[in-house]
Design brief:
146 residues, alpha+beta, 3 helices, 46% helix
Amino acid sequence: MSRRALLRSERGQMTVELAVVLPAVIVVAVIAVNALAFFSTCAEFDRVGRNAVRLCATSPAYGQDADQSAALVESMVEEAVGLENVEVSVEVSRDWQGHAAFALKMRYRPTLFGLGLRDEVLGVALPALEHENRFVVDTYKPGMLL
């Protein structure tokens, strides 16, 4: 077979290989970008959540109960994170010693390179990711003596 005939028979091979590999590369890229965005959001969520609990829960206002502190913490964290694909919830419970345990939960829904929320890309499911952080604080009670 001549060299020219060999080159002619391989014409289009790169196009076929690209058509086969491109969907897999797109799926891997979407997963990698969402994983990195999730880790970044988790770091911000942890930092902001810790500060919100420290500010709102350790020294509540006069007459403010734990549920009101949890609502304040939730609003501060939602405002600071400020992403439409992140849902924040805060639950509080008390133990017998009077400590308050704040459970901060974040639910991250994947996006398509930040353009919009997606549940799947090219047939590959992108599940929502969850992150939880717990803080236990001893709330200061104004006017109470130990």
